[in-house]
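It is worth pausing here to work through a concrete case rather than discussing structure prediction in the abstract. The textbook approach is simple: state the sequence, then state the predicted structure, then interpret. We follow exactly that order.
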Amino acid sequence: MENHSFSQILGNANAPYINGLAGENANFTQSFAIEHPSQPNYLDLFSGSNQGVTDNSCPHTFNVANLGGQLIASGFTFAGYSEELPAAGSTVCSAGTAPYTYQRKHNPWVNFSDVPPESNQPFTAFPSDFTTLPTLSFVVPNQCHDMHDCSVATGDAWLKRFLPPLLKLPGTAVFVVFDESDTADPGVPALALGPLVRARSYSTSKLSHYGLLRTIEEGFGLPLLGQSARATPVTGIWSLPPRELKEGSAPRP
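Step two, the predicted structure:
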């Protein structure tokens, strides 16, 4: 999700679904973006570095290690699903009609040479049979449904349509994360949901995109990328040990 602070979402009557999730799952009250604007934060989460990108420019190509490439090389599966992406493997910088637009700046995996085109999918390809999902999936709503260009209520309603069936899938963890805050409040909403997660608020340590990346890497036994090696991972939330991850029985963050 996009460009809202913790205080703009948590406690906001226009986001009843997200607030309900926060009360029933893991709510990270000390979660923070790393930088501005959007694109560097997406790259930080996916590769442990902004790769020298400090703006929303497009296009970029990187020949460096990243989460998707690591998963595939280790025998896992990965796909990113972007709403309004015009076709599988598309490398366009933007598509769609405002406010329902796709923006490549929110799709980090398309920039990395070892992530195959078939891992870059439109949201229309998101499986209806959730048991066929990749080991790890990213889902990026369009510019309206992510709250960037439309209201908090619009984004909340989109999540309410999309998430409930996923949260019933055994062995699954789902993270809902905002990329950055565009207010004086630097904190951003971040939730962990699903059968693998214990419900409570977690405020004892700061969480960043690097920390979330490290959490995923450690769960799947992957080498730590860039700044994730110095970040604090998410711990203490699991109903089952996240190290018990093997293809076929692994939680799907």
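Step three, interpretation. The mean pLDDT is 93. Residues 191 and 238 are 13 Å apart (CA to CA).
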